[in-house]
């Protein structure tokens, strides 16, 4: 197979892929890989295979092709190809929740000598690194990377990259609980899709709609959340995007839980868990368990009047505790599960929390560990087991310290409740309080020139109050 024929077959595969004939496209590309001696053509087709397997959720296959692509780039002895292949390797590990490896490969990309591809792909490298830092709950480093990616997008008029960064920023602010910004950024992404995305893949629209759905639910706008999630799911089903299907199912379940419709929420959590397990999204599995946990807490609150003898449990969403979907959801109907007595639910919850903690520790996600310790604390408090309770309280506060989720101005925790946040140029974040605008106005150059209290002496509270 010569160079011209290789190019034709790659293009044929792309046309099939864009028309949702994914399996036929994969067959064409695999045939090129088997028969073409053209290294450049092989490199390009490997890139197509990496992208296709990513969108299908076949992350281990994605990683396999990324490794082969690096070997091909080394044979070509071309720095541009090497940078692109290392970026694909970083993305593959990001999808598999191997966040430390992702960061390492991104640093390799950034350490390569200046290349033509560097100007084009530098923003994507920063975005992947930011996603990995966010996966590790290193919020300041994540925000710093996202801002670098956004600068790349603006400097290069790359609306597609800007759209992806805005979605990641939406996820960032959802986690630190600034729900206003969690909605603003995916709405900005949706605007970019409407203004510039006529020739883009529909996945960009689906991605922005999903993140809007998450933010709308957190804000309590459940009708809008459902509409956005339905649109995202429709596109995900049309394109066979299994990872997005799992996220949408999780979002649907959360919406039904927020409405108090627990019997509808449980099976959707079950379906989301099934796909998350299938594709290897360990962090997604933890998020499903957290959502299920809040259903159990809500169920306990509804049954409080008929179960006084079993103790009580706070109904705060941040103090939920999850059951094990494998043993609880797959072996009994939802209605039967909901009618189980509290001691049975507590046993299932603690077993599930242990599994979720194992996953969260494997991944290195400190925020999930923090939430799970909080759930364990609430269960042991309801059971009157003080020794276990104290152990989880200690680990909870250790996780808060490790994530640095506290405001450098007021000293209060960040992410405990919905609050307006402000980020400084150093990427430290703090609570936006009344009177803070006056403080900024006293800083030459405004907030951009403000000395960060996290890097200097603490700012006194009197500075935040108008004289």
Task: List the SSEs and their pairings.
Elements: H1 3-18, H2 22-35, H3 39-56, H4 59-76, H5 79-95, H6 99-111, H7 116-135, H8 139-155, H9 159-175, H10 179-196, H11 203-219, H12 222-239, H13 242-258, H14 262-279, H15 282-302, H16 325-329, H17 334-338, H18 342-363, H19 366-383, H20 386-403, E1 421-423, E2 429-431, H21 436-442
Antiparallel strand pairs: 1-2
Helix pairs in contact: 1-2, 1-3, 2-3, 3-4, 3-5, 4-5, 5-6, 5-7, 6-7, 7-8, 7-9, 8-9, 9-10, 9-11, 10-11, 11-12, 11-13, 12-13, 13-14, 13-15, 14-15, 15-18, 15-19, 18-19, 19-20
How many structural domains can be distinguished in the coordinates?
A: 4
Rg, alpha carbons = 24 Å
And the CATH topology of the largest domain? Serine Threonine Protein Phosphatase 5, Tetratricopeptide repeat
Strand fraction equals under 5%
Task: Describe the structure concisely.
This protein is mainly alpha-helical and 467 residues long. Helix content is 72%, strand content 1%.
Q: What features would you highlight for this structure?
A:
Serine Threonine Protein Phosphatase 5, Tetratricopeptide repeat; mainly alpha; 4 domains; single chain; 72% helix; two-stranded antiparallel ribbon; 467 residues; 43 kDa receptor-associated protein of the synapse; TPR repeat
Task: Please give a structural write-up.
This protein has 467 residues and is mainly α. The chain folds into four domains: 1-109 and 117-157, Tetratricopeptide repeat domain (Serine Threonine Protein Phosphatase 5, Tetratricopeptide repeat), CATH 1.25.40.10; 159-240, Serine Threonine Protein Phosphatase 5, Tetratricopeptide repeat (Alpha Horseshoe); 249-384, no CATH class; 421-464, no CATH class. The protein is built from 21 helices and two strands. The protein has a two-stranded antiparallel sheet with strand order 1-2. The radius of gyration is 24 Å and the shape is globular. The model is unreliable at 305-337 and 455-467 (pLDDT under 50).
């Amino acid at each position: 197979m010569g160079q011209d024929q290789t190019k034709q077959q790659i293009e044929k595969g792309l046309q099939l892929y864009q028309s949702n004939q994914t399996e036929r496209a994969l067959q064409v590309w695999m045939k090129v890989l088997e028969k073409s001696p053209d290294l450049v053509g092989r490199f390009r087709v490997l890139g197509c295979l990496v992208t296709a397997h990513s969108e299908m959720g076949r992350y281990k296959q994605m990683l396999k092709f990324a490794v082969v692509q690096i070997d091909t780039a080394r044979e070509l002895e071309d720095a541009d190809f090497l940078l692109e292949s290392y970026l694909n390797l970083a993305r593959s590990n990001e999808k598999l929740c191997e966040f430390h490896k992702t960061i390492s490969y991104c640093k390799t990309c950034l350490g390569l000598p200046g290349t033509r591809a560097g100007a084009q792909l530098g923003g994507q490298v920063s975005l992947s690194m930011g996603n990995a830092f966010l996966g590790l709950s290193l919020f300041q480093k994540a925000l710093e990377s996202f801002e670098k990616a956004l600068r790349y997008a603006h400097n290069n008029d790359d609306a597609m990259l800007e759209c992806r960064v805005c979605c990641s920023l939406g996820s960032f602010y959802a986690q630190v609980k600034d729900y206003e910004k969690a909605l603003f950024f995916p709405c900005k992404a949706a605007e970019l899709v409407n203004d510039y995305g006529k020739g883009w893949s529909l996945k960009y629209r689906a991605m922005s709609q999903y993140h809007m759905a998450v933010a709308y639910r957190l804000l309590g706008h459940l009708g809008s959340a459902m509409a956005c999630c339905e649109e995202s799911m429709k596109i995900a089903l049309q394109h066979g995007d299994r990872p997005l299907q799992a996220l949408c199912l999780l979002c649907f379940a959360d919406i039904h839980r927020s409405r108090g419709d627990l019997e509808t929420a449980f099976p959707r959590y079950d379906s989301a868990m099934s796909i998350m397990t299938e594709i290897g999204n360990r962090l997604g599995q933890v998020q499903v368990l957290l959502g299920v946990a809040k259903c159990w807490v809500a169920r306990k609150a509804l049954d409080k009047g008929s179960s006084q003898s079993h103790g009580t449990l706070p109904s705060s969403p941040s103090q939920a505790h999850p059951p094990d979907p494998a043993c609880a959801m797959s072996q009994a109907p939802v209605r039967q599960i909901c009618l189980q007595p509290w001691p049975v639910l507590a046993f299932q919850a603690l077993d599930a929390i242990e599994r979720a903690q194992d996953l969260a520790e494997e991944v290195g996600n400190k925020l999930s560990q923090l939430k799970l310790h909080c759930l364990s604390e609430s269960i042991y408090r309801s059971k009157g087991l003080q020794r276990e309770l104290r152990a989880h309280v200690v680990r909870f506060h250790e996780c808060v310290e490790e994530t640095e989720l506290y405001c450098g101005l007021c000293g209060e925790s960040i992410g405990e409740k919905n609050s307006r946040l402000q980020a400084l140029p150093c990427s430290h974040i703090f609570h936006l309080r009344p009177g803070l605008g006056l403080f900024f106005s006293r800083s030459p150059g405004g907030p951009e020139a403000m000395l960060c209290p996290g890097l200097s002496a603490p700012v006194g509270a009197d500075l935040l109050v108008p004289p």
